[in-house]
Amino acid sequence: MREVACDESGYEGEKLVGGVTDVFAHAGVGLSAAAATDCLAELRRRIRSPAVEYKANHLLREKNRGALEWFLGPDGPVLGNAHVHLIDKTFLLVLRLVEQRLGRLGDPAPAEPLYRAVRGEPAFLAAANDLLRSNGRGGAHRVAAFRRALDDLPAPSDLVERLRDAPDRPRVTIDPLVPAILAAADRWGAAGRSPVVLVHHTQSTLGPDRLALIGRHPAVAGFRIADSRSDLRIQVADFLAGVARKIASEALGGRGDAALLSLLRPYLDPASVWVGELP
Question: Which of 85, 108, 175, 241 is 20–30 Å from 13 (CA)?
Fold first, then answer.
């Protein structure tokens, strides 16, 4: 049964705005243990850093541009054996806001114009993020703060009023990790393929309830946690997630590197949470 090693980059739990990163990336790598060992040995030969464990930031240094292009490119071992699920965290927040307030589950149509209107409105985004957090504390205060944030919002007035007047509905999931893991399972184990075993880097938020949810997914034959130091396939997934997040974040900010974007595109999951074409 095939095993897929996974890792993420840019994860800040339910904090989707106002944090360190604006993009979340989750990578799945289907290399064998031997191929991962060879990949890391070649990267070490090319980068020549004394670090005990390499991370994505080693590949992202300008002096190691050649190693990064080899890693992503047709001469490297990863192409055709990996994928990346990208999430624009601001768009995920807006999408979940529309789902929760308006009941438009899975429908990006009303979310896209709102996203474009509010990307530069940090006060509104922070209020929306607080509204959707799952701990349930201070619910009335959060709703009041959200409605105040709507007052100065440069969005279509009809949509603003619908958001303001929407009835309370069950909370939606805004943490991106488990949906990304399930997307990896769908990518590797759905559409007529055999279910796969996912081997994921250690992540403290994957408690019993979340592990049970993942285990019930039809494309998951097994799920286990491992450390990147003991499973080198996870190090390769860490590289891919980290460089993908950085490349995509630069593109989202209007600073895209055309050559690196071209190398990254074959890896991108079409089910990524992104407005318009993927970067």
Answer: 108
